[in-house]
Design goal:
By secondary structure, the chain is mainly α. It has one domain (40-176). The protein has 8 helices and no strands. It is globular, with a radius of gyration of 21 Å.
């Protein structure tokens, strides 16, 4: 394939995890492993609580539940909660001016927490097992609350250009000659036998 000077070269993204055992141990990974009972939810909780404080209209408790719910609807373990917050911020801004939306979100979170309390004696955001949370989501997936949130998040999350590089997507290529000249064969996940 030839590259002309008018086209930007394709950036090759190394998607392999390059953390060595020594780097892991230096980074404190051993401390987390030694606890044994720590869950991912437990490790994320303080940071998630701090981000939830940004929900001034809906409240921090509702915001935290919405972030957990957003992650459960569109799960990406390597994506920070701050990107889920960014996806939810426009929805909260709309709720400030729309009492119906504010009510839908508030009542939806309350109903979800009630379901969680009935089944697990904990609110939704406090459930550590993803499978427990997903079971509850299957119960509400056809309701207005879930559908509104999912519909907003599909664009609010995936249209965020700051998230694209985390998925390996480099954005539009038409202004660089299209994917024929830039990126169509960036398939390092496919191994070729010689």
């Amino acid at each position: 394939m030839s590259n002309s000077s008018a086209h930007a070269p394709m950036r090759i993204v190394d998607k392999r995890i390059t953390l060595s055992r020594r780097g892991f141990l230096k980074g404190g990974g051993m401390a987390a492993l030694s606890v044994g009972t720590l869950s991912t939810a437990g490790l994320l909780s303080p940071a998630r609580d701090a981000l939830a404080a940004n929900f001034t209209v809906l409240g921090a408790a509702t915001g935290k539940t919405l972030m957990v719910l957003a992650r459960d609807i569109f799960p990406h373990d390597r994506i920070s909660d701050r990107f889920y917050l960014q996806a939810l911020e426009p929805l909260e801004a709309q709720a400030a001016d729309d009492p119906q939306l504010r009510s839908l979100l508030g009542e939806g979170v309350t109903a979800l927490d009630q379901l969680a309390m009935q089944r697990f004696n904990k609110p939704y955001a406090a459930l550590e097992k993803e499978s427990d949370r997903l079971g509850l989501l299957y119960m509400i997936e056809h309701g207005a609350f879930f559908q509104r949130l999912k519909g907003h998040l599909v664009t609010g999350f995936y249209d965020n250009k700051a998230v694209w590089p985390l998925f390996g997507y480099e954005g539009s290529a038409w202004e660089h000659g299209g994917y024929i000249e830039r990126g169509f064969d960036d398939i390092d996940w496919l191994e070729h036998d010689a």
